[in-house]
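Job type: complex structure
Entries:
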Amino acid sequence: MAKAPARNARTKTAPPPTPNRERPAEPQLYTASKEELLKFYHDMLLIRRFEEKAGQLYGLGLIGGFCHLYIGQEAVAVGLQSALTEKDSVITGYRDHGHMLLCGIPPKDVMAELTGRAAGISKGKGGSMHMFSVEHKFYGGHGIVGAQVSLGAGLGFAHKYSGDGGVCLAYFGDGAANQGQVYEAFNMAELWKLPVIFVIENNQYAMGTSVNRASSEDQLYRRGESFRIPGLQVDGMDVLAARGAAEEALAWVRAGKGPIILEMKTYRYRGHSMSDPAKYRSREEVQSVRDKSDPIEHVKKLLEAEGVKEDELKAVEAEIRRQVNESADFAENTPEPEPQELYTDVLVETY
Amino acid sequence: MAIDIKMPALSPTMEEGTLAKWLVKEGDTVKSGDILAEIETDKATMEFEAVDEGTVAAILIPEGTDAVKVGEVIMRIAEEGEDASAASPKPEPVTRAEKPEVQEQAAESGTPVPHKVETGARQMFEAAKHDAEVRDPEIPAGTEMVKLTLREALRDAMAEEMRADDRVFVMGEEVAQYQGAYKVTQGLLDEFGDRRVIDTPITEYGFAGVGTGAAMGGLKPIVEFMTFNFAMQAIDHIVNSAAKTNYMSGGQMRCPIVFRGPNGAASRVAAQHSQNYGPWYASVPGLIVIAPYDASDAKGLLKAAIRSQDPVVFLENELLYGRTFEVPKLDDWVLPIGKARIMREGKDVTIVSYSIGVGLALEAADRLAEEGVDAEVIDLRTLRPLDKQTVLASLAKTNRLVVAEEGWPTCSIASEIIAICMEEGFDDLDAPVVRVCNEDVPLPYAANLEKLALISADKIIAAVKKVTYRQ
């Protein structure tokens, strides 16, 4: 078949359309104080050490089932959630341990849930993928890919309905971004101007399928275009970029302009879950990201440039290791739920 | 030749309507597409268009007339070239009592005669006229009873709970401006405004998730599905998100939400729009499942459902929406969830049913009484948790039991009742329990096949005769 004649780009192409609606400003890198940088460093390192320990406990058979680790993606949640206030809510999928720690949930409550103990945040009945803390405004922890997007829109609805000024941060992955209900939720969220920040954590792989193999539009921040939801693409390996994007997104949403999408370009170092051998990518690819873009090393360098001494950082790390080990010991030794707990919490009321 | 124009049927269940307004008068010329009249059904006001052309020779039913039967001649049109006054002697306006039967009067008709098709749905619809013989013991003695349709009772329940609690809101397709696809939310938008009565896009999965998330966030949503057939799109949120929240969170996260809408076979809407999801949802721990029969129960149980801190699936029946029942006139009529109701006391056999099946069971009981069989009829009302005690107590009294269920037989509520009778009532059984369910096929469209597929009073009677060894 003959090819259509190439168009003369210079004469025939229309000038790019001028956007006819307001868009958020390009987010700026956040200017963090030394204290803030130290806090970012602490929080990211806490997640990493916690997840490494969880992986270890999984290997020992103390954690069962599916266990999805957040290693490599720490800058996303740390940067975004550092901008939240007490009235805001968070919801995510099953890769949820890190988000929970940042909501202020004690590591030992999370770790004990991973080992299925009565002292776990869900009394041992939820496990890695199903954890919640209403007290800390963390609404899960959802095992069905994409469910948290509609539910997050619902949390945004509740914020708006009750006029509490809160915003819901609804995280999902590049895989979930292809689920139909995501677009149903986008439509309603924009239609009703719900205070929701949709965060696409694009870690490049939906289990073993790379974004390019599964998404006809792989620039996921554009996924809201046909709903008039603006999107920003953000370097998710840089905590300052993440925090800067959060500032911009929160300003947009709190001004009543409706939802916004943040596509956080990130990378997970581990497999999709503990049982994923990750044969779909090379060891070199992973190593290269670790070497060049590690979010923790990045902040470490910034801190060193601020004059923070190696000793000081080592002290931070030592304290984190102590805390993580303590939570692991606790999770291993605290008792399993009583057998009668099997029948509790099915319903709230008695009929 | 004059053309008789007859009262049209404007919905599958419409039997009569109000001739609200004539938009033409005698002597007017009408052509195809002109609007002749406005007709009110129980659901909506509809415009009635001309198909035939000519001159209005006579208007036979004055505007404002209520209860005009479908098929009754309402006007006569003289065709072109015909003298409108001479075309047919203007009949004396017949008094309603002596008007002739429409079906026999079809000879000169230009429009087809809407004739009553004998369908299975119609049988169920007719049987549902039965009022309970035993007064609900929950109603205090001396309470005044008022007549309400099922849809009014449901609407009142929502309105009362919305007045009492600002966290309660309604969302769904066409619930606000359209006043409800089946007019169940009629008037709510006017009273509560668009903050609390919310039209959604046609996205069941999405809005079921939004509602569930709002419940997790502390609100008390009522999510209306236009029918539960469409909730198949949303079943993930009902089962995975709503039902399991409390358990998975170790009891700290509530999900107080009501999913409601019509369920079960409607009239001639065929396979994809006719199924009973009672057994599906009743198999899920963490859900409350309610399927009321009459308006009184619908009101009392919907109020209870809205107040509950647990997620509730509330299954209504479209064929019953327009039925009038007695409802107690009480400021706050709330029924306990999980309690069956004895609709008719009897000593020879127990018929257990729920939703529209109760009407059929009551009709069967009436006819059995004529043959000397005294049947007890139990309306389960709540499918989960199931009131086993009431069923077993009745079995202990009658020693014979039939389950009547408008739904498929396999893995049904009937199967569950039979299992309970086997496990906990075996010594009381004088005959095997028999289930009367719909045929085990997708519901067909053809009127005769639909009738064959659905349960009927005849089938219940046959089953009763079997367990009482009368045939």
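Summary: The first strand of chain A starts at residue 89 and ends at 92. The two ends of chain A are 72 Å apart (CA to CA).
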